[in-house]
Amino acid sequence: LLVNASEALGRPIPETLFGIFFEEINHAGAGGLWAELVSNRGFEAGGPNIPSNIDPWSIIGNESSSLTLSTDDSSCFERNKVALRMEVLCDTEGTNICPAGGVGVYNPGFWGMNIEKGKKYNVVLYVRSSGAINVSVSLTGPNGLETLATHDITASASQVSNWTKMEVLLEANATNPNARLQLTTTRKGVIWFDQVSAMPNDTYKGHGFRSELAEMLADLKPKFIRFPGGCFVQGGRLKNAFRWKSTIGPWEERPGHFGDVWMYWTDDGLGYFEFLQLTEDLGALPVWVFNIGISLNDQVSTSNIRPFVQEALDSIEFARGDPNSTWGSMRAAIGHPEPFDLRHFALGNEDCGNKNYQGNYLKFYDAIKKAYPDIKIITTCDRFSQKLDHADLYDYHVYKSAKDMFSMAHQFDLASRDGPKAFVSEYAVNGKTAGKGNILAALAEAAFLIGIEQNSDAVSMASYAPLFVNDNDRRWNPDAIVFNSSQLYGTPSYWAQCFFRESSSATVLHSTLQTNTSTSQLIASAIMWENSGDNKSYLRVKIVNFWNDTVNLKISVDGLEPNSTILLSGSTKTVLTSGNPMDENSFNEPNKVKPTQSPLENAGKDMDVILL
Ligand code: AHR
């Protein structure tokens, strides 16, 4: 491998080349990155109709003798009227004595709540009753026997005759990753509950994100976040698509919605504002994916698309408009008067072939460009198959076998360098060869990313998909980060991405692989970047060996300036491999496949390396 370290022969890599794609799939957000512990906190999972679906809320006590549960539409929240009505039939005295510990309801969260000793949890609930109440709010083990934290709320009839917000801070005295929240009482009467929330009070930057998951994202140093999804944005039906105006404002007032592609309810605690906040917290640019009136099964004709276009314009004003503007003032009222740095707007997802796409697209394009000429518009139409006039970027999705993904490293070698650039917003090895995310898949993806790095004058942005999976609801396989209530690990695909975290804004150097049979299964690239921490220049060579044997490779670096600050002493090599290409990580062995770094003993102008 010949590398020329002269920057003059290299090419700057776009600032935003590598980022992440967040989709509400696999409970990535609800029951994942969004730290809310209560599932179905507003009892709305069945939609606005009565009776609603209170799942996974369950009864504590005997349904016929000690209490009855039902839903009605008496909530004080206009956009989500469903409330839980609990009629307690037993009491502390008389003929029908409540069991010790009381009767009531519990919520097991998303396959168990992770409650940790010494940590604090903010519980908020809305209560109404026709009489005085005495309700124990408790975090307990999975069967209710072990109490991890508890607090009694008492109120007179007059205090709770109207809906009243109650707030409790619980500190856990023990750890249980499979805990639940209980609301119990031993007093006869009728109590209504609504909007019951439990949040750990140590979320990422205090913004509601589950810390350890957000930290894994931060470690990737993503330059952008595409959100809130692909098919999730489309919806199976338009009525179930993500509509941002329903996801902003006080969480209690959000109606929530059923994501009918990945088939689960979300309370939309992770709404449009929170996504923008996440981008800012991670130092990434937002890429806002917008439904342009087309779902997987129904659509709005171009002649009726105007309200959707207005929604798009309003969303931009919300993100970056003046704090005195209609929607900008709502952002300011939430506590963020400064604009978010929204520069990219994706019109639709995978719906280019749809009969209304072109017509709808142009209406959005014209309106957005007129109001915000600097915003880069992303089309879902593929530049390989058609000429694109009205687009700054085109969205390109690649899901392949490992072998085919390795070959895709050359997909952009011949792509035109003029006109719209590619945004490879979804790529991954999937199918049988990928398992649940193995080394083989990661190697092929790394090869593909090396190809993108080398062709970064034709590709501006790239992100892996999907990002997250809650192991209890695997709707798509593989994924980059696997978690349950208390555990998490990166798949090899996650770790492969870490090799590229310095690439955005770096210089891709001129390099040539002299190939023979085995080296045709190699792909390599070299980058150089200046580290702002120590103002020194670093050079990184990345090589993927897709051959089924070890390869001895000579690396020669030419063109180093005599006074170059490129570090040779202290150089390291980082290896992502293990014995078997099918190896995967798991909760039991989360670090089985992880990059290992060691000193590069023979660092210099000429180096012999062995690629396993
Ligand atoms: O990443 C999973 C899905 O794959 C996305 O929702 C969609 O855009 C693609 O088909």
UniProtKB/TrEMBL annotation:
Tell me the GO molecular function terms. Answer: alpha-L-arabinofuranosidase activity
Please provide the Gene Ontology terms (biological process) for this protein. L-arabinose metabolic process; xylan catabolic process
Q: Where in this chain does the record put each Alpha-L-arabinofuranosidase C-terminal domain?
A: 425-612
* The enzyme's E.C. designation: 3.2.1.55
Cellular location(s): Secreted, Extracellular space, Extracellular matrix
Q: What reaction gets catalysed by this protein? A: Hydrolysis of terminal non-reducing alpha-L-arabinofuranoside residues in alpha-L-arabinosides
Q: Name one Pfam family in it.
A: Alpha-L-AF_C
Enzyme class at the top of the EC tree: hydrolase
Sorted keywords for this record are:
Extracellular matrix, Glycoprotein, Hydrolase, Secreted, Signal
Q: What is this protein called?
A: non-reducing end alpha-L-arabinofuranosidase
